[in-house]
Amino acid sequence: MHRIAVIPGDGIGPEVIEQALLVLDKISSKFGIKFDYIFIDAGGCAIDKYGVPIRDEDLELVKKCEATLLGAVGGPKWDNLPGNLRPEQALLKLRGGLKVYANLRPAVLYDELKDSSPLKREIVSKGIDILVVRELIGGMYFGPKGREIRNGEEVAYDTEIYSVSEIERIAKVAFEAAKKRRKKVTSVDKANILESSRLWREVVSRVAKDYPDIELNHMYVDNASMQLVKDPSQFDVILTSNMFGDILSDEASMIVGSIGMLASASLGEGSIGLYEPIHGTAPDIAGQDLANPVATILSAAMMLRYSFNMEDAAKAIENAVKIALKEGYRTRDIYTENCKLVGTKQMGKIICENI
Ligand SMILES: NC(=O)c1ccc[n+]([C@@H]2O[C@H](COP(=O)([O-])OP(=O)(O)OC[C@H]3O[C@@H](n4cnc5c(N)ncnc54)[C@H](O)[C@@H]3O)[C@@H](O)[C@H]2O)c1
Ligand SMILES: CC(C)[C@H](C(=O)O)[C@@H](O)C(=O)O
Ligand SMILES: [Mg+2]
């Protein structure tokens, strides 16, 4: 029996979570393992219900679970609330509270989706298989921030701050991951301008000495965002900060077809993990059965792999997704000519049947 906190959230969150749970139910019956789901309100729906993005007691409940599966939070309805009361605060509280400092975001281009990538054939034909390792509980998201009056006018600030130990632990995650992959780490920073990036670069170079078999290169974030569309095949593991990782992972998702395909795992020291698609609540398509549930379904697969050590079950899900794509099923975001257009629910059903 594995206890999972399930946080559907807002917008398309509940729609994609519903499909991921159907997939987990199928895994449960195939692999003879029980999942105990604890449903928790967080995000805009919790603000409506309780007046806060996530209640303290719910955060404590989450901490007692082995893993958390989250849809997405936020939406225009809550956009004008003060920063500390916005739905997105729930995410930061969860990530910080669970101390999941390593956010793994794999961007893999499936052969079947080469036409869904906006990049030219000659670029995608070299293949794309990138793991973005994003630091998740430091940097500008968590540094000192505020508003005050200076020289008679209002100013606002957020602070990018990283300690040696924070950089060391995330760098180790990237190098360890590279060992099992193509043995290359590209550390992305802005060391030509930011002091925090200069420390980042120094520490990453130091950690690299413990990994002589791994090739390390450093790249400025502006160049990295350009190189990602020019020649994505040059990247294996991208190691970067919270803010740069947020931005680069959305870019990485589009070059492999759609943000609706990208899963993520957020891990700390133990096996407890937070699993969520990298996309948001997609208010423009919410409630219309248009969302691609694959990112959330693949996040559930990552949960089985990293928190429950169920490699076979994780592979069964990943394989079921590949078969659905091979058979030509596509949600609207990845649809190309001559494929079979399906909605959120049907995509989930087909993936379940393929397990
Ligand atoms: N992890 C999270 O909970 C999370 C992540 C990102 C954004 N958000 C929040 O979501 C809200 C909307 O943000 P946004 O519009 O900038 O980003 P978004 O990721 O929600 O949407 C961006 C675009 O991608 C499309 N899209 C996203 N997911 C999709 C899917 N599964 N299938 C098909 N198309 C998909 C949307 O329709 C939209 O056109 C904001 O409140 C934001 O703060 C939450
Ligand atoms: C909603 C927001 C707080 C979040 C982030 O910036 O981390 C999202 O964009 C993501 O990528 O998970
Ligand atoms: Mg993001």
Automatic annotation (TrEMBL):
<comment type="function">
    <text>Catalyzes the oxidation of 3-carboxy-2-hydroxy-4-methylpentanoate (3-isopropylmalate) to 3-carboxy-4-methyl-2-oxopentanoate. The product decarboxylates to 4-methyl-2 oxopentanoate.</text>
</comment>
<keyword id="KW-0432">Leucine biosynthesis</keyword>
<feature type="binding site">
    <location>
        <position position="222"/>
    </location>
    <ligand>
        <name>Mg(2+)</name>
    </ligand>
</feature>
<keyword id="KW-0460">Magnesium</keyword>
<dbReference type="InterPro" id="IPR024084">
    <property type="entry name" value="IsoPropMal-DH-like_dom"/>
</dbReference>
<dbReference type="GO" id="GO:0003862">
    <property type="term" value="F:3-isopropylmalate dehydrogenase activity"/>
</dbReference>
<feature type="binding site">
    <location>
        <position position="134"/>
    </location>
    <ligand>
        <name>substrate</name>
    </ligand>
</feature>
<keyword id="KW-0028">Amino-acid biosynthesis</keyword>
<keyword id="KW-0464">Manganese</keyword>
<protein>
    <recommendedName>
        <fullName>3-isopropylmalate dehydrogenase</fullName>
        <ecNumber>1.1.1.85</ecNumber>
    </recommendedName>
</protein>
<comment type="similarity">
    <text>Belongs to the isocitrate and isopropylmalate dehydrogenases family. LeuB type 1 subfamily.</text>
</comment>
<dbReference type="Pfam" id="PF00180">
    <property type="entry name" value="Iso_dh"/>
</dbReference>
<dbReference type="GO" id="GO:0009098">
    <property type="term" value="P:L-leucine biosynthetic process"/>
</dbReference>
<keyword id="KW-0520">NAD</keyword>
<keyword id="KW-0479">Metal-binding</keyword>
<feature type="binding site">
    <location>
        <position position="246"/>
    </location>
    <ligand>
        <name>Mg(2+)</name>
    </ligand>
</feature>
<comment type="subunit">
    <text>Homodimer.</text>
</comment>
<feature type="domain" description="Isopropylmalate dehydrogenase-like">
    <location>
        <begin position="3"/>
        <end position="351"/>
    </location>
</feature>
<feature type="binding site">
    <location>
        <position position="250"/>
    </location>
    <ligand>
        <name>Mg(2+)</name>
    </ligand>
</feature>
<dbReference type="InterPro" id="IPR019818">
    <property type="entry name" value="IsoCit/isopropylmalate_DH_CS"/>
</dbReference>
<feature type="binding site">
    <location>
        <position position="95"/>
    </location>
    <ligand>
        <name>substrate</name>
    </ligand>
</feature>
<keyword id="KW-0100">Branched-chain amino acid biosynthesis</keyword>
<feature type="binding site">
    <location>
        <position position="105"/>
    </location>
    <ligand>
        <name>substrate</name>
    </ligand>
</feature>
<dbReference type="GO" id="GO:0000287">
    <property type="term" value="F:magnesium ion binding"/>
</dbReference>
<feature type="site" description="Important for catalysis">
    <location>
        <position position="190"/>
    </location>
</feature>
<feature type="binding site">
    <location>
        <begin position="75"/>
        <end position="88"/>
    </location>
    <ligand>
        <name>NAD(+)</name>
    </ligand>
</feature>
<feature type="binding site">
    <location>
        <position position="222"/>
    </location>
    <ligand>
        <name>substrate</name>
    </ligand>
</feature>
<dbReference type="GO" id="GO:0051287">
    <property type="term" value="F:NAD binding"/>
</dbReference>
<keyword id="KW-0963">Cytoplasm</keyword>
<dbReference type="GO" id="GO:0005829">
    <property type="term" value="C:cytosol"/>
</dbReference>
<keyword id="KW-0560">Oxidoreductase</keyword>
<dbReference type="InterPro" id="IPR004429">
    <property type="entry name" value="Isopropylmalate_DH"/>
</dbReference>
<comment type="pathway">
    <text>Amino-acid biosynthesis; L-leucine biosynthesis; L-leucine from 3-methyl-2-oxobutanoate: step 3/4.</text>
</comment>
<feature type="site" description="Important for catalysis">
    <location>
        <position position="141"/>
    </location>
</feature>
